[in-house]
Input
Amino acid sequence: MNFDLTPEQIAFRDQVRRFCQEQIAPYAEHADYTGEFPYEAWKKMGEFGLLGLHLPEEYGGQGADVLTSVMAGEAMGAGGADGGLLLAWGAHTYLCADTLYVHGNEEQRKKYVPKLASGEWIGAMGLTEPGAGSDAASIKTRAEKKGDKWILNGNKMFITNGPIADVLVVYAVTDKNAGHGGISAFIVEKDTPGFSTGKPLRKMGVRSSQTSELIFDNAEIPAENLLGTEGMGFIMTLQTLEWDRSALLAPFVGAAQVGLETCVKYALDRKQFGRPIADFQAVQHKLADMRIYLNTVRMLVYRVAWNKDQGRPLNHLEAAIAKLYGADEGMRISSEAVQLHGGYGYIHEYPVERGFRDAKLGQIGGGTSEIQHMIISRMLTAEAR
Output
């Protein structure tokens, strides 16, 4: 196995980090404090090419491979971009635009993907419901074919980009007797008759990402807006897991990098009892744990990305380990960063406070830590039988 990065990848990663430090990070504190979506920062990300990085050039993308896309996400996190903005980026780019590109027909691709890649339009994915989170097969939203339209009824919940999205990939049941095979995907535009969104939810962390309920009350979806073929929706959700366990985790890796740099600097500058707190063993252990986490989670995430680049099917065990370790250990390390800063770590103006709040989502979104434990244990016992 060769873990060397190409000079081009390293240069691009550094370029993205500098861009975010200079152009995106200045929006972060205000966006987090107010909960407002930073449209100007979003526009700049689109101009830089980050909103369609992995998409083919013919559809407005940059044609980057998966590992390069992951490194870009890591660099954005390390560059100080607001966690809410990065969550919006992930949902837009990988859960919506990529799904449209991979499963859409040529007409759908040409209509939607270039607008998403440029940032002219914002995308979202509607899967989670008030009573169906990690158990996607239990969704209640229904789609019934009537003439040249599909009629959608139901509700989605906790949808990132929901209230600001121009186009969404929405999953609904088209055959209630077919289990996983009865779920289909639909392209829903924001002005669709019968479709509306709830008001943005105020969250603990990643506050600038606009999150809301989606409401379908006899929403009329043109027949041509069926994405892929009927009954293939659940397969599409599994495909997004590869991105969810790689590119969407990458900003957490970048945030861990800048968090470690911040903590090391603070430990050297902060003096107690006549010497830097970096001289105390308890602080040294915290810093060592942060570095161990950074190295480990980076390799786990890169591994998932590398496998996808090789065209290998998703290894659900490796993916679940990456998600679980990245989330649970990330939460612990974020807590230690606050602890190391003492009272200052509890103050909003210090980035570690925001990092602590943002980290909690990792244990909930994209499949809870409990679900990852279940996946890992089931695969272990299945192998032993």
Observations:
- The first helix runs from residue 7 to 24.
- The beta strands are 123-126, 142-146, 149-160, 167-173, 183-189, 195-197, 211-222, 226-227, 271-272, 275-276.
- The longest strand covers residues 149-160.
- The chain has a mean pLDDT of 94.
